[in-house]
Write a structure and sequence with these properties.
Strand order of the largest sheet: 1-3-4-2-5-6-7
Mean pLDDT: 87
Order of helices and strands: EEHEEHEHEHEH
Low-confidence stretches: 199-206, 210-214
Radius of gyration: 17 Å
Shape: globular
Number of strands: 7
Structural class: alpha/beta
Number of helices: 5
């Protein structure tokens, strides 16, 4: 996608504040510090449009970003931060569940996990929840530049096995530093949002998820 215009729209806490344009919405979910803000900035080619919270785990809003007047990115608050109280976690859960189960413009959830580490218990719960309610999703393994290329297939296998991902669920390697996976992810997003695809500027990801025979 050629990025022509991007803007932060609103930090919403409930349906009354959600935009009413009816544009397709792509939600981003993941643990605190998994790199959601960095991914948004890289996808939109903006340095500081999405800002990392100074208090991880404290943000309790859905942050909307309008792109080219064609779709929204909806950034969820990060989950799994140890200092968040039980009541705050419950409030987060209710807000997210209400959005995910009742938001008609939602077309896709990008669940971000850190490629360097096996998915956490919170990652597994989120994946299982999305799967249970049959919400379209793509898993994005961030920080790929922090893992040697030769180790990518091994780490991708761990992600798939830990989450119980069937083969038809996409798994995209992503790096906000190198741009790895950006074009592949845009292709998935545009198809999900019903936006016509342009000629791809990057060949498909050639990394193979091989079996570990050792």
């Amino acid at each position: 996608m050629k990025i022509k215009q991007t803007e932060f729209v609103i930090s919403a806490v409930g349906p009354a504040q959600y935009p009413e344009e009816g544009l397709p919405e792509i939600a981003l979910a993941g643990r605190s510090n998994v790199g959601k803000s960095s991914l948004i900035n890289k996808m939109l080619l903006r340095r500081n449009l999405a800002r990392t919270s100074q208090q991880p785990g404290k943000t309790q809003t859905l942050n909307y970003y309008r792109i080219n007047g064609e779709l929204f990115f909806v950034d969820f608050p990060g989950y799994g931060y140890a200092r968040v109280s039980k009541s705050e976690r419950e409030a987060w859960g209710k807000m997210i569940e209400r959005y995910l189960r009742g938001r008609d413009p939602l077309k896709l959830v990008l669940q971000l996990v850190d490629l360097r580490h096996p998915p956490s218990a919170d990652d597994v719960r989120m994946y299982e929840w999305l799967s249970h309610y049959e919400i379209p999703m793509t898993v994005v393994a961030t920080k790929a530049d922090k893992v040697s290329r030769s180790q990518w297939p091994k780490h991708m296998k761990v992600v798939r096995q830990s989450l119980g991902m069937p083969g038809h669920v996409p798994l995209v390697l992503f790096s906000s530093e190198t741009g790895q996976g950006r074009d592949e992810l845009w292709s998935i997003i545009m198809q999900s949002a019903g936006i016509p695809l342009n000629t791809p500027s990057e060949p498909p990801n050639i990394v193979q998820e091989t079996e570990d025979n050792g």
